[in-house]
Amino acid sequence: MTGVSNYLSTISGNASISSLTNGDLDRHKTMRTLQGRAPQTIKHELNLIMGAIRFAKRNGFDIPDLTPPPVKIPGGKLRYLSTDEEKRLLRELDPNRVSNGLAPIDERDPKKLRAMQDNYDLIVILLDTGARYSEIASLTWDQIDFENRLIRLWRSKVENESILFMTTRVAEVIADRAAARTCKFLFSNSEGGARGYSVIAIRKAFDRAGLHDCTVHTLRHTHASRLIQNGMSVYEVKAVLGHADIRTTMRYAHLEEAKVTSRARDVIERMNTDHQNLGVNQR
Q1: Which CATH fold would you assign to the domain 83-216?
Q2: Most exposed: 43, 170, 173, 265, by fewest CB within 10 Å?
Q3: Side-by-side strand order, sheet with 144-145
Q4: Which residues pair with 160 in a beta bridge?
Q5: CA 145 from chain center: how many Å?
Q6: pLDDT per residue as tens digits for the range 165-177
Q7: How far apart are alpha carbons 209 and 157 in whole angstroms?
Q8: What digits encode the pLDDT tens for the residues 68-126?
Q9: Count of Cβ atoms closer than 10 Å to residue 68 Cβ
Q10: How far apart are CA 26 and CA 257, in angstroms?
């Protein structure tokens, strides 16, 4: 909620949330654009503000009905990791890796080792679930069902809950972390609270792996792309990612179309082969 408070204070100063207008939201968008903020960042800020407004309305506060200004997200090539790129990234995050910049494993500071393990585990979970960083960084142990190997994930951005089943490596990561847990969060900060947005070391790992055009969100694209490329529809992927609007998931539609056209090629190939074989038999 701290981030939301900062955005609200930027918009309305000391005024209450109930006094916000659509004009205030428009001015926030204009101001952030002039400051050079990326469209995706501005859209995320407006989503956070609207989420706070909906929360206040549900709790009985008299809040006006507001409509945020549209934010156009520029198109571009969808970036996702290949299997080899994933391996390179995980190598650079491996807490047991040997590097000139690191002390020998048996001499490393325990806090340093824990931070390295946290980063590695977090990335594995993001890769195999397609969840948003914030959803996993704030995950609590009571959301984990070990018996059924599932995660009950509350998606605050779109205010819905998803049931995500664990892959084997996610189940192993979570089991290892459970054996050493000290607070209610899977990933905590030094004070025992939720981890929060801490990605500096992860960004450096991307760079060391030569993935300079990737971010943590690339992992979500990677998960979705792999599902599409292996036969799932955009509507099924929408459910997995927890998108509120199918239009958000449609950015992956071209991958689904490519899968369909490759199957069409296979159909024609089989028909051509059958015809050729028939022609041989007739001769």
Answers
A1: hpI Integrase; Chain A (1.10.443)
A2: 265
A3: 144-145, 150-155, 160-165
A4: 155
A5: 21
A6: 999 999 999 999 9
A7: 30
A8: 898 876 656 789 999 999 999 999 999 999 888 888 888 888 999 999 999 999 999 99
A9: 18
A10: 37
